[in-house]
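Appendix B. One record, verbatim.
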Amino acid sequence: MSCVRPRPSLVLASCLTTLCLFTASGTATSADKARKPQTIGDLDARKIEIRPEAKVPGSAVRAMDNYKRYLELQNADPATRAEALRRLGDLNLEAGELERMESEVTAIDLAGGEAIKLYSMLLKAYPDYPRNDQVLYQLARAYETTGQPELALTTLDRIVSKYPTVGQIFEVQFRRGEILFSAKRYAESQKAYEASLRSGESGQFYEQSLYKLGWSFFKQGMNEDGLTPFNSVLDVNLLDRKTRTKLRRIDQLSRADRELVEDTLRVMAITFSYLDGAESLNAFLNTRQPTPLYAHLLYSRLGDLYVEKQRYQDAADAYRAFVARDPNNDNAPLLAMQAIEAYRKGGFDQLVLEGKRDYIERYNFASAFWQGRDRAKNPQVVAELKTNIKDVATYYHATAQTSKKIEDYQVAARWYRDYLASFPDDPDSAATNYLLGETLFESRQYADSAAEYERTAYGYPKNERSAKAGYASLVAFQKERERLTGDAQLAWHKRQIDAGIKFAESFPEHPDSGGVITRSAQDVFALGDLPRSIDVAQRVLAHQPPVDAAKQRIAWNIVGQANFDLGAFDQAEAGYARARELLPANEPLRKDLTERLAASVYKQAEAKRAAGDGVGAVDAFLRVAAVAPDSTIRATAEYDAAAQLINLKLWDRAIGVLENYRRTYPKDARQADVTRNLAVAYTEAGRAGDAAAEFERIAQSPSEEPAVQREALQSAADLYDRAGNVAKARGMLELFVQKYPQPLAPAIEARQRLADFASKAGDASGQLAWYREIVKADAGGGAQRTDRSRFLAARAQLALAAPPRDAFRAIRLVAPLKNSLQQKRKALDLAMKAYRDAVDYRVAEVTTAATYEMAELYRTLGRDLMKSERPKKLSADEREQYDLLLEEQAFPFEEQAISLHEINAARAREGIYDDAVRKSYAALAEMKPGRYGKTEQVQDVVTSLE
């Protein structure tokens, strides 16, 4: 522990200012110079100002000579003389210091002794000299320089006693402390250093005083008391002196400061080791808030000290104490590593493991430590983290392989995961990932195992473990699938399929690659993903090296069936055909493939038909027989071909296919349909007779529904009529009316046609008979009556009114008039009733016709009255009177006729202007020409109707 040298400026200043003794403090003006010239004697009357900062030329030897000459002057001013003595003493002391630096002990003693004499002379001669405090200080230095520490201490004590407030008092106290410390008077040196520290941090000896104060306590056995000054030494040297918020690196300190800091750290470590080690260090730092930035150095040095003493567990505790105190400190990971190393040196394997685990927990990349930190700038922490995770994972994996316990594998997996999460791009990550997959598989975590095996296989550059890991993932997928049920199992199965496809394509050289991709194709198809199943099957077929024939057949079968289900029937046909080619001739599966092949062709025909390609559809239907003559669908295909030909109205070709079908499949259930289709085809081909025969066959078939039979009878009647076979046509209609009186509509139409046939044949009675049937059928139709049935019945009734009308007209009025008129009135009533019955149907054209006929009946009666036979032998007057009487009788009938015709004519305003209305207008023009006789009047009515 060396003492600090005194500041040389205090000595050198005396040398540099010697000549100032001979310089006046004021500056004379020009007038003063003119009045009185300056002489040496004038110096006695002037105040001398010593300016230590002034640089004076000349050597120290010349300065001492000048001082000596000055002191020889008899008239020297006492104050100046005292100052000269002091200066001369300083120069001698400085000379001694210089010689001391050159290690010339004799010269030191001579110079120092001379300085002591001069200072002692000054103190004795000038006890009141104002600067005696400095003289005493210099005298103490001189004593110390000449090896007289006790006299130096006494002199310094005089300064403390006599001059306690001088500017150099803190340095004086420091000098006292140094002498006392060297004399092992530690309690006294403690007080001296404490006094020196009152200068504050700005004091020149503040730092050294702190350091020596700590040692003073230490030497006294007051270890804890010494910690505070030692700590302050670290504050001064290691912290930014302005803000104390920035740590200075030890290697950036000057050599002296670095040695001072290192020594301070060591003595503090020793102190804490004497106490309770890390616990005492924690307690000490708890009293200092905030915790010093260099706290890690204290823990580190304490741990290092324990390591030197082979107290490894204590060392680890010291290192770990800082980690626990400030885990996110930049230096905490380093101390954590030192703790692990201490355990290792001590042979504490379990503690090494725990230390590594603790390190990982604290400094993994997800920890708070890395918030705001760059990994690249902390390579040592990263490297240690990597090593520790791998070591821990390896340890637990080895343990699991020995114990075979699932929980041990799970622990190992956890550490492997940590490693991979932290170092995903590490060259060893692929191998580590595989080990993770193994641990998960052994711990029955099959889903996670599959994921890690896949990551090993595909997430890293291809390596020796890739294919093995890929296949292992498939095993793990299968294991997990066996544990699941329902939707979860289905979802997992899909993932398993994806994994299989990926494996087969990534590692085609693997022995089971072809089998894996084939099974994947089957699984995809079984799940109903048809497009993908085709894709995977095609991959099977494209696999290199090629798969065997059995796998190819499976793939082609999938291609065929999936395309069939998707509606791509041409592709399905090709797939089935290729699959069938790969089967031996006697293979039972050939029949199934033949049926599927026929079905794919049949579906092509259906598709063409739906797309509007009718001819193509026919060709495809008929092609079934060519590709699969033994298929069960062949008959259906030929039947559908005929039906399509009918739809296309290719009647002749359709007839040929249908006639061939009737011959080829006589017992086929579709023979009835063949008959129907032939009936249509013959009809459309213009072969009405053949068609009628087919419809008659349908009508007579007991297997047909009554409705079908009924329609067939109608069609047969129509076609026989068209073929000119009226007798057969009438026979069909009569049978129809007989067998199917209900429903009303078709039955009444048949009656109308039979009436028409009778009319054409001139069979008036037969025609009227069928009209009566029509009226009767409509009257009994109930809810089945329709506008059409009413219309036909109205027309029939109108026709049935013609005979009574004609009978009315045929009766002539002869004398005696009463008898004939009575007959005619009865006939009128019958005819009128028949027409009123027709009107009741409220069919417009029948109503207008019946109204017209009724009006004409009245008009006819009126005219017939006027034309009636007159009684014979009437005089002229009697004849006139008779005629007047007839007019009176005829007039009402004429009025009724006019009224009915006007009712008919009025229907023109309702939009009804048929032949009967026009005839009513014509009749009115004759009967009331004044009103209806003008053509334009009729035109007006017509115009108004339009």
